[in-house]
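Field reference: sequence -> structure
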Amino acid sequence: MKSAFITGANKGIGFETAKQLLQKGFYVYIGSRNLENGLQAVEKLKTENLTNVEAIRLDVTDDNSVKNARIEIGKKTDVLDVLINNAGINGGAPYTALEASSKQFLSAFNTNVFGVARVTQAFFDLLKKAPEPRIVNVSTSVGSLTLQSDPNWLAYNFAKYAVYGASKSALNMFTVHLAYELRDTPFKVNAVCPGYTKTDFTGYNGGEVEEAGKRIVKYALLDKDGVTGKFISEETNPTTGEIPW
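Structure field:
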């Protein structure tokens, strides 16, 4: 049975992604900063007869928490097939470059960039033992430098979140480098935008969470001929999914 670890998976898109991977026969570890919330998510999944799941306490901003999560999962498996770096924050208001505080920037980067690096490095030893390891870094079209500077982009006047956008652009760069370093291995590493989705993150505006989950799962299940080192947003580009960095 293949296994997956999803950060920030006790709710929203992460929870839906966990659900869909469970339906496809995976054993799923749900990373949750608050363990009680993670346990509640597990119980909810079990009411749908999805039982190959357990909660792991994980605060991606804390080195010791990440280390302890690796120890806990290492007690249960020697191999991890999929890592989905889903945990993220928007940094909070004010959202503009001239008004946002340094604290906002530090907080967003600690979760959205440094947290991804912490978790990826901590779990790399388990991932490299898998025959076809997959890493999906959950990003956003808001982090595209090309789109953000294009007045013809449909979201040009509506997606101006300086802190969030900057952190996701940095995450994208991390993804590029990670994919490059793993280019001659069986790894597939991609940045995937799930789209504007109805969750508490968006005030429950946007598309359906099921569709967002499908977009992430698709790149967690790539075969050996699948893409790597790409920035994907099927919401933005329904044809090929690939969008400019």
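Note: The mean pLDDT is 96.
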